[in-house]
Amino acid sequence: MELLPLLAAASLIAGWVDAVIGGGGLVLIPVLMASTGMPPAAVLATNKVAAVTGTASAAVTMVRRVGVPRFAWGLAAVAFVLSACGALAVSLISDSVIRPAILILLVAVGLFVFFNPSFGTTAGAPTYTRARVAGGVGLALLIGFYDGIFGPGTGMFLIMGFTALFSQAFLRSAAMAKVVNTATNLGALTVFIAGGWVDWTLALVLAVANVVGAQLGARTVLRGGSKLVRLALLALVVVLCARLGWQEFSNN
After folding, report:
1. What sections of the protein cross the membrane (predicted)?
2. Considering the chain, what percentage of its residues have pLDDT values greater than 90?
3. CA 139, CA 146: separation in Å to the nearest integer?
4. Distance between alpha carbon 145 and the CA centroid of its chain, in Å?
5. Could you count the other beta carbons within 10 Å of the beta carbon of residue 85?
6. What angle separates helix 170-194 from helix 130-149, to the nearest 10 degrees?
7. Which phi and psi angles does 13 have, rounded to 5°?
8. Is the pLDDT of residue 245 over 90?
9. Of 86, 65, 62, which is closest to residue 178 (Cα–Cα)?
10. Number of domains, the chain
11. d(CA 48, CA 80)
12. Could you tell me the residue range of the domain that residue 27 belongs to?
């Protein structure tokens, strides 16, 4: 009980980070692991309860203000199913296989955004052709499975993918990403609930704090626009590369 204020504060910060660009798990999961003594599966499951409520809250706020195309809800349904499949398959694929590939992808994403300052910040009207929507389905399949099985950077990869596919601004892509990311969190959480891994008392406290942080983060994004999302994306690339690189180094 004495740790609840600390954990609630961590969840609030995680909700803000998640709403701005994604990656709130980088804040909350280490705090839960270091302070609660729960097994890793219970930590991930309890974190998902907070994540899904916070992300859903941010999604509602951003969809109301920015809007998303109708097919975004179909992408969310696809991502839900694949995220659940990823969570079921999590024991079949080692982190040591995924981590180096994600590191390379993150560096490529960071360099592309850094050297293309107009990408996602000066886009005109979005383009939703059948071919591009089909590409969006493929992205939802891939990222949904990735979030279920590994997860770091899911929101960022969705924003990058939607921006590139539909030639739209980061802000609109962020709204779409929140819808799809809510579904990926929910898909993985469904598997965790079925396995009985959620500490519901702690999870509900974290969920309330995460929603508060998510609402603050969504408003930050709406005020800062696509340029803020670009800066946050670059910052997240650096943090993720540092985290994954350290894990890779320490495990070798």
Report:
1. 71-93, 100-119, 131-150, 197-216, 228-246
2. 54
3. 10
4. 13
5. 18
6. 40
7. -65, -40
8. no
9. 62
10. 1
11. 13
12. 4-251
